[in-house]
Specification:
Number of strands: 11
Order of helices and strands: EEEEEEEEEEE
Oligomer: single chain
Largest sheet: 7 strands, mixed
Number of helices: 0
Helix content: under 10%
């Protein structure tokens, strides 16, 4: 089982990034997928999630209207489109796959929002 995040980098405030999480080793389409983030000195927090069936999405309040989670089951990949980035979005971003008691995490990708 592997989850590999990519797309993190340094970006200026107001900029955009798209994170990707490529999955392998499990039946991706059957798993709910989520993006979490962890800023220095803080706990890991849920950013956005998308269900396996129906593709229903959910976002934390601070990113609503700016971030969009999506998935491509044909490519076994989940995305996080991040627009209007703010310095407080700086964190390591992780993707997670979950189905019942099965849960897998990626290694994370660093997003830094700074001028």
């Amino acid at each position: 089982v592997r989850l590999v995040e990519s797309g993190g980098t340094l970006v200026q405030p107001g900029g955009s990034l798209r994170l990707s999480c490529a999955a392998s080793g499990f039946l991706f389409s059957s798993y709910d997928m989520s993006w979490y983030r962890q800023a220095p000195g803080k706990g890991r927090e849920l950013v956005a999630s998308i269900t396996s069936v129906g593709g229903s999405t959910n976002y934390r309040d601070s990113v609503k209207g700016r971030f969009t989670i999506s998935r491509d089951n044909a490519k076994n990949t989940v995305y996080l489109q991040m627009n209007s980035l703010k310095p407080e979005d700086t964190a390591v971003y992780y993707c997670k796959a979950r189905m019942f008691r099965n849960e897998y995490w990626g290694q994370g990708t660093q997003v830094t929002v700074s001028s």
